[in-house]
Amino acid sequence: MAATQLLVGTRKGAWIYRSDAARKAWSVQGPIFLGHIVNHLVLDPRDGKTLLMAASTGHLGPTIFRSVDGGATWTEAERPPAFPKVENGRGPARSVDHSFWLEPGHPSEPGVWWAGTSPPGLFRSADGGATWDGVAGFNDHPMYWKWCPEDGGTPDGALLNQIQIDPRDPRHMYIATSTAGVFESHDQGAGWAPLNQGVEASFLPDPYPEYGQDAHYIALAPTMPDRLWQQNHCGIYRLDRPAERWDRIGEAMPKEIGDIGFTIVPHPRAADTAWVFPMDGTEVWPRTSPDGKPAVYRTRDAGASWERQDRGFPTEQGWFTVKRQAFCADKAASVGLYLGTTGGELWMSDDEGQAWRPIAAHLPEIYSVSAAPLP
Amino acid sequence: MIAVFIPSQLTSYTDGVSRLTAAGGSIEAVLDDLDRRFPGLKFRVVDEQDRIRRHMRIFKNGDRAQDVRAAVGEGDEVLIFGALSGG
Predict the structure, then answer these.
(1) How many domains does chain B have?
(2) DSSP-assigned letters across all residues of A291-308
(3) How far does CA A228 lie from the centroid of its chain?
(4) Which residue in B has a C-alpha nearest to residue A92's C-alpha?
(5) Cα distances (Å, whole numbers) of residue A54 to A51, A161, A265, A281
(6) Does residue B87 lie in a domain region?
(7) Res A346: pLDDT
(8) Which CATH architecture has domain A23-84+93-293+300-320?
């Protein structure tokens, strides 16, 4: 059975798409929280039913909603992620603008969730997302203001945009930021060190700094978690631990396409396989499909070579932008791939990227798409 | 008691009620009272540094409040609005 649910977060609400066993027919539930900015909507793989949603609105402050009935009803976090109040003007006063990334904790820690915010902050919940506490090891690190300067960041603000947990060891974590690149912790967040050797920051005077890179997306190879894939602002990289120097595997991409993008999706089983969705990073950085011809690129040899997969996509005038959380895979025998565009289109492939077809159109700007098996 | 106007953005917390009363000697105390009755409401209006959120507006008797520490008293009116916030 490959029946799949797609959890879609958009700039104006959330939708859930559910497929039949063949992943041919899709039903839709939504809008959920119409008008709310939904940066991430994630299913807890440990119980297969709990959904967490990172939400805010144009007016209202950020919060987390939780559902245990497939999105029919929701409860709000009692204490959403928030920085400590600064008393007497001692130090910069941070406030969470929005939660950007939600990560279920290690399988050995049911009820634990992690959140990354803008401005960059790492938060942890031990009660299924009801209450959240800041992780001082990052948020109050002596280097925090060097790593996360107040004027840094994306048009939507500086981000702690990803959290990855080693499936073999809950203490071993990686995070990605838009202001300082990738960090690693061996003690569940108490201490952090930059992990950016070999990663370019072409927008800084020193293009290969210890930190300062814009790590758009990192992913661990599920069956080989010592392998990290990274789609950076400045290229596609791979790192096989315990090495500390990333290899720019995007150098093998066609020069006319380049290796700029927001996201990278590892194969759920084949550790040498991953997909990217390249975007135009030339001149003024349009961040649209190069030449208006959308395509994903797949490597099956750990980045030594890439093949274009564009069957079914528009062959011209297709100016797609696919954001960080908006490209994902399921775990079916023939892997399904799903991507959402800022133009509100939802696309899928059920044959590992060889052919693509639309599932939905006319949605608001899509921020996130995550896939999970239907119970 | 303080008369309070709740904007549409927050009526999901108040069972659809937009006009109600609250107790407190400052705008912050009024918000705290509302938050006790409607958990989560305050943080949507005021951030963790007690700053009024950028696209929210609070008025006391018609005058815009910049600080939640502003005093209010018996018979005052506190109006909460969602301001312009983009399309």
Answers:
(1) 1
(2) GG---EEEESSTTS--EE
(3) 14
(4) B49
(5) 10, 12, 21, 29
(6) no
(7) 98
(8) 7 Propeller (2.130)
Whether residues B53 and A76 touch (CB distance < 8 A) is answered with no
Every domain of chain A and the residues it spans: 23-84+93-293+300-320
Tokens of A275: 């997909």
Q: What are the chain B neighbours of A57 within 8 Å (beta carbons)?
A: 9, 85
Residue of B nearest to A56 (CA): B44
**DSSP for A165-189?**
E-TT-TT-EEEEETTTEEEEESSTT
At A6-49, the pLDDT tens digits run 999 999 999 999 999 999 999 999 999 999 999 999 999 999 99
| CA A183 from centre of chain | 15
Token duo for residue A101: 């990334």
Assigned domain for B40 exists: yes
User: Would B19 be classed as within a structural domain?
Assistant: yes
Task: Identify the pLDDT of residue A1.
Answer: 55
- Size of chain B, expressed as the number of residues it contains: 87
Closest CA to A39 of A367, A346, A365: A367
Report CB contact under 8 Å: A85, B10: no
Chain B nearest-CA distance from A42, in A, is 22
Sheet holding A133-134, edge to edge: A98-104, A113-118, A121-125, A133-134
- Collect all residues of chain B within an 8 Å Cβ-Cβ radius of residue A82: 43, 47-48
Q: Which residues of A touch B45 (CB under 8 A)?
A: 60-61
Interchain contact, A95 vs B82, CB within 8 Å: no
Nearest-Cα distance to chain B for A115, in Å, is 17
Q: Residue B87 pLDDT more than 80?
A: no
Calpha distance A19→A5 (Å, rounded): 6
**Element (DSSP H or E) covering residue A236:** strand A235-240
* C-beta neighbour count of A66 within 10 angstroms: 19
Distance CA A127, CA A24 (A): 37
pLDDT of residue A111: 96
**Domain encompassing residue B70:** 2-82
The angle formed by the CA atoms of residues A4, A10 and A11, to the nearest 5 degrees, is 175
Per-residue DSSP letter, B62: T
Q: Check which CATH number belongs to the domain holding B64 and give it.
A: 3.10.20.30
CB–CB of A178/A161 below 8 Å?
Answer: yes
pTM check: above 0.90? yes
